[in-house]
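Class, look over these structure tokens:
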Amino acid sequence: MKKEPFFWVTVSCGFVIGAFILLPLIEMMTAPSASMLKKTIQDKEVVKSIWLSIYTAGSAASISFVVGTPFAYLLARTDFRGKRLVEGIIDLPIVIPHPVVGIAILSVAGRGHWLGRLFEELGIRIMGSVTGIIAVLTFVGLPFYINAAKSGFESISPRLEKVSRSLGASVVSTFCRITVPLAWRSMLVGIIMCSARAISEFGAVVIVAYHPMIAPVMIYERFEAYGLKYSQPVAVWLVFICLALFLILRVLTLRRPRQA
């Protein structure tokens, strides 16, 4: 069958987009030699920064899971006045420029704000600390978890929960035994999306906590000080981590169980 001209337009656009995404990444990842990559991963500062990125991103995802799961369920199951406004507020960290996020967090965590003074009295330091990094990463990653979990809860028929309740199960028991087992895939995808978003954050982190240095900040510092040659290997290792998260995400979303 002869293809319509529009078909070839769509294919051409696909090739252009694929090249636009892949060419810079392939060039960056093939530029460092194997010996350079090996030397980089043996650098204690690099390993420390990568592990700090993984730890803080994982912590942000864990916090998002704990506080975001009940709220995502509320949004999925309840209609109330102002719900669209609340959902818009949740998505704000996605559209706010990254440096603005760092400035906003420091605005409430500084000594000039009552919350900052409270943190100081409690011995909690935000600026230049791991706590500050986790706060920033939670801020930028939370919307991704809430939206994914909410979609998972919405895909489950409320009838199943009503049947469980009619048989004498409590709300908590129904949520833990019925809802979560059916929505776990979406929740896990949300955790991975939150972690992936958090591990790539730079603009907000560099304002709140330049030190201790996470991997994106180290890449920036090495680029500024030494150029591409010394920043590329660290970037390649960080890309490997992000690709691993992406592959896990694709495997989890490849097959979705049928809902009753």
Q: What stands out?
A: The longest helix spans residues 44-77. The two ends are 40 Å apart (CA to CA).
